[in-house]
Amino acid sequence: MVTLTGELDTRADTRLLVEFTERLEGVVAVTDQLSCQIDQDGGYPTFGPLY
What pTM does this model have? Predict the structure, then answer.
């Protein structure tokens, strides 16, 4: 289990970090406790597995 905490610049950044973390080998769950300075609601790119 991984818990992400802290503050990033945008909501899109927090979503990407959660998605990247979920794709890491061995990660079974991610708890998102991230905040952001700018809450821009828009699409963000998705990526395939990092391994």
Answer: 0.71
Cα separation, 48 vs 3, in Å, equals 21
| 20 to 3, 23: CA distances (angstroms) | 13, 5
Q: pLDDT over 70 for what percent of the chain?
A: 75
Q: Which residues contact 48 (CB under 8 A, 6 or more apart)?
A: none
CA–CA dist 50, 5 (Å, integer): 21
* pLDDT tens track for 19-42: 999 999 999 999 999 998 876 655
Q: Which amino acid is at 4?
A: L
